[in-house]
């Protein structure tokens, strides 16, 4: 029957989706079919079900050789399927259709079947993680889905392919071990699933474009019809009027949520969850009293550096999401390497968006349209309390408060205090070091305090499990098996409650090649984290995988960056020579991943977004501290110097000559010539496999003259994508002003280039104070912005530009600037105040 359908006329996408679901069910065993049909008969999955399934995946690891948490890899794809399942029935046939829950069931069944096959599930979960990164999100298409048949078809086509991926994965597991081995040799995992992954990525981009076009068309239509509402309402059926109102409500909801926050709060939670899990606090009386309280309250856990506070917080979030499926749960994990995450406005806005995202769009009609502009913390809290139903339980989970500065903490705790004093039920969970709790405990009441004990029984369990994993995977090799008991005892006694210390010692021990080396390492284990990091640097220098100066530069850029840089962004930044505006791809590091890995275990590369981070915030503190000995001095970084250096990199990058010519559309492109290999191919960071194939092709010829590079690129799928890419451009455009706050004429070689950016003559740069005003108020606006953002260099440059002339500087401007600097104690405010005083004196002398 299925074959007959395929040979007939092309089926509609929704029919193909139903057919794909039917074919997936057909390959299941009888027991699995029963489970699948049970899931299909259930209600559509809720948000809490995403957390529940990922928890089940991580708990079902009895037959795996690793105790890693794979659940976070699956969060994005599960979330996307959950969101789609809530709207798919609009076109499939109403709420009685099983399609919605069937798609969810397919993914859940696939994970259940494959989870116990260790190496295969590792590859499969990584595939789902990559698919999830580009998977269409409800906020991208939700408003337009009911109105756009093209969008409906594209989404059905997309999830039909997702079902096909699941089917292939299950069919592989159903093969005999010999057939699996044969299939792996003849058709490796990437060969089997690579084309489908590429197809999904292409379809996801098309869906986003289609949703954008449909939204613009609908807005234009709405505007035209709104100009003559009477005629419109009389000519439309009541159902169409109702749909128009629903569209308007949805649009208002998404606009308000975007106004609250667009920050990706899931990334930091995923990292924390992958680090492990902890259940130690669930049995404490303070936790039980907090969770069972009938009124708003706070649970604040405290612990020493490296004691596992973040892992505990991630585990609490998971436990609450599963145990209270009807409650509204929001969370935020502050990241030491992401400046945006340390702002009170970001935290409050993100928490509000999460709590409000599940509300019916009609509820947002209570928000005045004029209130949905730029909102401060007080306005967000006010709107949140106005919109939330009072009958709901609201859980707020916040980790990493130690990373925020005092002024941001004051604002954050003020907002949280207002939530506690409201008529709603808020259960707030915080984690920090003991000192922070001592300073702020009076601001959040009523409160339960839970200090994490230094003698933590979970550390012994963790050490035992970690050693077991390393023995099974072969990363720890022993000649005498009894040494494992010595290792366990030494790590348990030396940990002093610090999981982080244990992690670094395990890596050090596993790096030893002999039993003698292991025993010597155990006899001289470092006493604390700084001594641990010293040893890491010494071993790194001894290996000399990467030049120490390269390591220092990487440390400096990562430490100064205002958000984590992706590998290709870091590669571009490393290749910039301050002051040289001619882009030279020969300076780019060929293998940036190897360079980062050569910096020892102090840096890590996030598997999900390929960003480079310090392993822990204590590592960053160590790198920025004064070195204890002369040898490690070459790796330590002075933050003010690193900040200025990154500023010079940003300024130089934005002044690259290529941006004057290449960021324009060209209708005709000349064929790629062999001599363009360096400037046009390597610049775009092609995969090393592609570079190697091109190089091998050149080796087989006498020279490059007869080498058809264009056809070779097409063969590897690159020829159709010859648009140049500049990975570091987005970062440089966003943060060049931040990193140049302390620029000085004569001290930075890029000062002249910096002035060029300020002149608004560089196409890729948009100045935050807007284009040059026609009424002569440019300097006034620049000085206001400089004071508000504490940009000392900009104040000096603007005052120098004004000089002794008062041309264009009015009394009104002087009064306006006085209002800006009033009450500010910063150096920039003082500079502007002194300048205004001089201006006033000159006026009086005239």
TrEMBL record:
The segment(s) forming the DUF7708 domain are 74-218
Q: Which InterPro entries match?
A: DUF7708, EF_Hand_1_Ca_BS, GPIID_WHD, NPHP3-like_N, P-loop_NTPase
Annotated Nephrocystin 3-like N-terminal domain ranges read: 280-432
Q: Which Pfam families match?
A: DUF7708, NPHP3_N, WHD_GPIID
Q: Does the keyword ATP-binding belong to this entry?
A: no
> Per its UniProt record, what SUPFAM superfamilies does this chain match?
P-loop containing nucleoside triphosphate hydrolases
Please state what the protein is called: NACHT domain-containing protein
């Amino acid at each position: 029957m299925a074959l007959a359908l395929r040979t007939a006329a092309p089926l509609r996408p929704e029919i193909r989706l139903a057919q794909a679901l039917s074919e997936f069910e057909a390959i299941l065993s009888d027991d699995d079919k029963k489970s699948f049909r049970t899931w299909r008969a259930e209600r559509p999955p809720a948000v809490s079900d995403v957390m529940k399934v990922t928890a089940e995946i991580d708990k079902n690891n009895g037959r795996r050789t690793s105790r890693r948490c794979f659940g976070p890899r699956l969060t994005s794809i599960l979330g996307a399927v959950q969101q789609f399942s809530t709207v798919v029935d609009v076109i499939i046939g109403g709420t009685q259709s099983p399609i919605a829950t069937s798609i969810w069931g397919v993914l859940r069944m696939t994970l259940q079947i494959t989870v116990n096959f260790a190496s295969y599930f590792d590859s499969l979960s990584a595939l789902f993680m990559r698919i999830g990164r580009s998977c269409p999100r409800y906020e991208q298409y939700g408003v337009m889905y009911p109105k756009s048949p093209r969008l409906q078809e594209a989404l059905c086509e997309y999830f039909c392919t997702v079902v096909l991926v699941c089917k292939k994965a299950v069919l592989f597991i159903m093969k005999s071990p010999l057939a699996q081995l044969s299939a792996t040799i003849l058709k490796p995992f990437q060969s089997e699933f690579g084309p489908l992954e590429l197809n999904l990525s292409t379809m996801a981009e098309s869906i986003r474009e289609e949703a954008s076009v449909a939204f613009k068309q609908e807005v234009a239509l709405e505007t035209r019809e709104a100009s003559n509402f009477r005629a419109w309402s009389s000519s439309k059926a009541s159902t169409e009027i109702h749909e128009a109102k629903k569209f308007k409500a949805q649009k208002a909801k998404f606009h308000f949520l975007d106004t609250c926050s667009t920050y990706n709060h899931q990334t930091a939670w995923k990292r924390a969850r992958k680090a492990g899990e902890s259940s130690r606090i669930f049995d404490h009386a303070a936790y039980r009293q907090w969770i069972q309280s009938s009124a708003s309250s706070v649970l604040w856990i405290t612990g020493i550096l490296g004691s596992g506070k973040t892992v505990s917080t991630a585990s609490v979030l998971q436990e609450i999401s599963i145990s209270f499926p009807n409650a509204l749960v929001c969370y935020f994990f502050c990241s030491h390497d992401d400046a945006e995450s340390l702002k009170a406005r970001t935290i409050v806005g993100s928490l509000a968006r999460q709590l409000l995202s599940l509300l019916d769009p009609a509820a947002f009609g209570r928000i005045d349209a004029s209130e949905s502009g730029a909102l401060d913390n007080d306005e967000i809290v006010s709107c949140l309390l106005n919109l939330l139903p009072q009958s709901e339980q609201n859980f707020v989970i916040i980790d990493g408060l130690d990373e925020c500065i005092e002024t941001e903490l004051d604002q954050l705790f003020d907002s949280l205090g207002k939530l506690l004093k409201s008529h709603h039920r808020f259960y707030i969970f915080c984690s920090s070091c003991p000192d922070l709790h001592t300073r702020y405990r009076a601001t959040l009441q009523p409160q339960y305090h839970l200090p994490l004990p230094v003698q933590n029984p979970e550390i012994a369990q963790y050490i035992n499990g970690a050693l077991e994993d390393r023995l099974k995977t072969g990363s720890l090799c022993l000649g005498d098996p009894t040494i494992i008991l010595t290792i366990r005892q030494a790590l348990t006694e030396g940990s002093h409650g610090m999981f982080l210390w244990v992690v670094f010692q395990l890596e050090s021990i596993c790096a030893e090649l002999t039993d003698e080396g292991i025993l010597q390492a155990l006899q001289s284990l470092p006493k604390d984290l700084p001594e641990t990091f010293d040893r890491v640097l010494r071993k790194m220098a001894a290996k000399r995988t990467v030049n120490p100066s390269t390591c220092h530069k990487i440390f400096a850029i990562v430490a100064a960056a205002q958000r984590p840089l992706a590998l290709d962004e870091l590669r571009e930044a490393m290749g910039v020579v301050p002051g040289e505006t001619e882009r030279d791809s020969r300076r780019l590091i060929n293998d940036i991943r190897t360079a980062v890995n050569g910096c020892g275990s102090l840096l890590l590369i996030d598997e999900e977004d390929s960003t480079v981070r310090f392993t822990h915030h204590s590592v960053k503190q160590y790198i920025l501290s004064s070195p204890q000995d002369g040898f490690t001095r070459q790796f330590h970084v002075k933050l003010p110097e690193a900040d200025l250096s990154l500023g010079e990199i940003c300024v130089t990058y934005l002044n690259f000559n290529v941006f004057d010519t290449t960021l324009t559309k060209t209708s005709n492109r000349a064929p790629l010539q062999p001599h363009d290999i360096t400037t046009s191919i390597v610049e775009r960071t092609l995969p090393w496999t592609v570079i190697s194939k091109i190089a091998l092709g050149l080796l087989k010829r006498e020279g490059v003259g007869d080498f058809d590079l264009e056809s070779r690129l097409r063969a590897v799928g690159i020829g159709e994508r010859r648009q140049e890419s500049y990975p570091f451009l987005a970062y440089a455009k966003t943060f060049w002003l931040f990193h140049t706050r302390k620029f000085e004429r004569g001290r930075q070689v890029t000062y002249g280039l910096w002035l060029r950016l300020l002149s608004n003559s560089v196409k890729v740069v948009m100045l935050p104070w807007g284009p040059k005003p026609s009424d002569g108020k440019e300097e006034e606006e620049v000085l206001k912005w400089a004071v508000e953002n504490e940009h000392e260099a900009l104040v000096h440059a603007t005052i120098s530009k004004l000089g002794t002339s008062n041309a264009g500087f009015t009394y009104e401007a002087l009064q306006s600037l006085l209002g800006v600097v009033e009450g500010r104690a910063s150096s920039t405010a003082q500079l502007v105040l002194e300048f205004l005083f001089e201006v006033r004196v000159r006026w009086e002398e005239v």
